Each structure stands twice: as C-alpha cells, then as structure tokens.
User: Which sequence fits this backbone?
C-alpha cells in the first residue's frame, strides 16, 4: 500500500502538470521507479496496476491516464491531475484494489 506518511518519508523531486512528484531516495523518477504523484490526492505509480476504478468512480474526475512506458506494473497510471477539485469522498481510496491512493483531507 501507499505510504500515507510519504510527505515525511519521501522527497519532492519534480513537478508533473500542476502537482508534485515524490521519490523515496530524492532521485529523479526512472521508467521502473516512478514514485508518487500528487499531494492532497497521492497515487503511488509503483503500486498502480491501471485498474481504472478510481477514474470510473471519482465524482469530480480528479484522475487522468498518463503513460509510463516500461513500468513493470502497468504502462499507464491514474494521474491526480485535478487534485484541487477533490471533495474528499474517499471513494477512490476504497475502490483501488492495490491501495495505491492516499487522500489527505488536511
Ligand atoms: Fe475523487 Fe473522492 Fe478520490 Fe477525491 S476522494 S479524488 S473526490 S474519488
Ligand atoms: Fe491505479 Fe488503483 Fe486507480 S490500480 S488506476 S490507482 S484504482
Ligand atoms: Zn502526474
């Protein structure tokens, strides 16, 4: 499962669209090790298997597919492009079969 403490245990290394990208070692993401995208709505790209339930169920369409060619789990990922629209319903957290998503209502 995604580390819900990632803001402390990971380092912010990059930005993608308008959100942050985090990795454990503070190094740039690689094809095989993508890290976490987003902060309020965070998706661990190294866990996501492109199930798609989050895209289908999010009532405000926070997620978009993004390509991750060469990643061992899946070559597309649910990117929290519109995380600022999130209404903290927690549906995505509940439906993801691999617990790749963390939502922090803060
Ligand atoms: Fe969408 Fe709800 Fe998940 Fe926020 S918590 S991203 S509104 S499904
Ligand atoms: Fe990925 Fe889980 Fe969504 S596997 S596509 S984050 S439901
Ligand atoms: Zn992203």
Assistant:
């Amino acid at each position: 499962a995604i580390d819900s403490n990632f803001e402390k245990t990971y380092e912010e290394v990059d930005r993608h669209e308008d959100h942050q990208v985090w990795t454990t070692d503070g190094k740039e993401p690689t094809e095989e090790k993508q890290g976490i995208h987003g902060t309020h709505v965070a998706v661990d790209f190294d866990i996501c298997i492109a199930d798609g339930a989050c895209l289908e169920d999010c009532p405000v369409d926070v997620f978009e597919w993004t390509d991750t060619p060469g990643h061992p789990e899946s070559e597309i990922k649910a990117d929290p492009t519109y995380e600022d629209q999130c209404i903290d319903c927690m549906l995505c957290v509940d439906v993801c079969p691999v617990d790749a998503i963390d939502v922090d209502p803060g």
The beta strands are 11-16, 19-23, 36-37, 41-44, 64-67, 76-79, 101-103. The two ends are 20 Å apart (CA to CA).
